[in-house]
Amino acid sequence: xNANVPPTAALVAKLTARDDLSAEEIAVLxxxxxxxxxxxxxxxxxxxGDRPGHSTLLIDGFACRYTTLKDGGRQxxxxxxxxxxxxxxxxxxxxxxxxxxxxxxxxxxxxDHGRLLEITHTHPHLTRMFWLLTLIDGSMHRxxxxxxxxxxxxGNAAHFICEIYTRLSVVGMAADNAFVLPLTQVExxxxxxxxxxxxxxxxxxxxxxxxxxxxxxNVVILDWDALADLAEFDPRYLHVVKEPR
Amino acid sequence: xNANVPPTAALVAKLTARDDLSAEEIAVLxxxxxxxxxxxxxxxxxxxGDRPGHSTLLIDGFACRYTTLKDGGRQxxxxxxxxxxxxxxxxxxxxxxxxxxxxxxxxxxxxDHGRLLEITHTHPHLTRMFWLLTLIDGSMHRxxxxxxxxxxxxGNAAHFICEIYTRLSVVGMAADNAFVLPLTQVExxxxxxxxxxxxxxxxxxxxxxxxxxxxxxNVVILDWDALADLAEFDPRYLHVVKEPR
DNA sequence: CGCAGGGCATAACCTATGTAAGCGCGGACT
DNA sequence: AGTCCGCGCTTACATAGGTTATGCCCTGCG
Lengths: 245, 245
Description:
- The structure is a homodimer of 245-residue chains.
- With 245 residues, chain A is of the alpha+beta class.
- Chain A contains 9 helices and 11 strands.
- Chain A has helices spanning 9-16, 23-32, 90-93, 113-122, 124-150, 153-170, 185-192, 196-208, 224-231, and strands at residues 37-39, 44-46, 54-60, 63-68, 74-80, 99-102, 106-112, 174-175, 178-180, 212-215, 218-221.
- Chain A has a 4-stranded antiparallel β-sheet with strand order 2-6-4-5.
- In chain A, helix 6 (153-170) crosses helix 9 and helix 7 packs across helix 8 (196-208).
- The longest helix of chain A is centred in the middle third of the chain and has 27 residues, at 124-150.
- Chain A is globular and about 55 Å long.
- At the A-B interface, strand 5 and helix 5 of A face strand 5 and helix 5 of B.
- Chain B binds a DNA duplex (30 and 30 nucleotides) through residues 152-153, 184-186, 194-198, 200-201, 203-204.
């Protein structure tokens, strides 16, 4: 938002929540990113089948990874917020097996894969931290699998809200149980594997139970304990713990 | 199985299906593993909450990562076969947020995290290959999310069979559309997010459509094209492509 | 040899969630 | 200023998949 805030601010916040970075490492991060660029909401950042020569950092805005099926159904497999590397995995996987789309207007910057390759030779700790980021993505994938497979829709929706609140807190975009979440009910259905009708039912139930309010893009968690309890939310899987890595 | 086959054979097969390894890298792999050890089926290899000081390679047998919910429900988030590093991610994540269990009798060997740390300093390419392994795990997680969220149970079961066949082929444990899969219907339900009753229905349907036979632990794919079509199976997400990484 | 337990199969019934359709509001464009 | 269209919301109805229960066939074991 602020022009004085460096594009890597949220990324650095996300990383330093897990381990200390040296001043040099922070400089390397700042030095490796391209000039920021804007992507309009609804547009793709990377497309299924692409072989990008760089990876993309989300500076601000909301983006998602998704897969589209033949019948038109869409599954969102990850939601990305400021400070997330939306396709860091393409550095090693080479070919995208899914797309990444901007849900809102997004500001992004890129790092060339060649630069990342260099870093794996010169900065082992930074390399491990990048690896860590992709592992936390995997951890969230697993938690979503548990939710879709074994949690009822209501609990899973509650879980999603707990997760997003926690993740936004790490990058300073949520506090006092309130945050902005620019997701339509259709999009939330694509996240949770539900129809939009059922998303609506579930949200009504969370509202009538006075667990949350959600008006427009403003979400307020009225009763964190009850919400987390309903969700069986255990934040350990987000690994927001600072320790040597 | 064969005492002359080194414990890393399947791992090397899995890696070299994605990129060439130097003789020195293969030697490092072989040198880093502990003596093999046996784990009985049904026992845990790593437990939720553990902070293991090493990562575990599955030499042979079948294992799974799983999460258990309060109501007793279990979701299997990954199925592991010979050559898989079942908890390589614990090297960076430090604390396990889920368990890893042996589904059958398993032979395993471990690498100390200290040794892995060294490798990130001395062997960047090998480090990237380890990173790649965890990224492919993430890729499978995403595909399972798509299946659970948006594919009907029949298609998702078909998809699972296609995936396992492909993965077993890479390590030489499947050929001619046939393989051994020691999973009970309850366990398959925990993979697919279904009840065992529905798993049974779905298997009956795959059988009556003459897509597969599944007797005891022996699975035969009778009509790969029809099965893959039903599953909308696109193997790109497994990244079985050899290229410089 | 007989019994217990696990795994598969099947039936009857139930419910969470999906589908189809329509309404109203508010913002964005002409 | 009027018109559209996307989004939220609701209703009526349909169905995929869950639950409970039961039987049968193995295999392992006392």
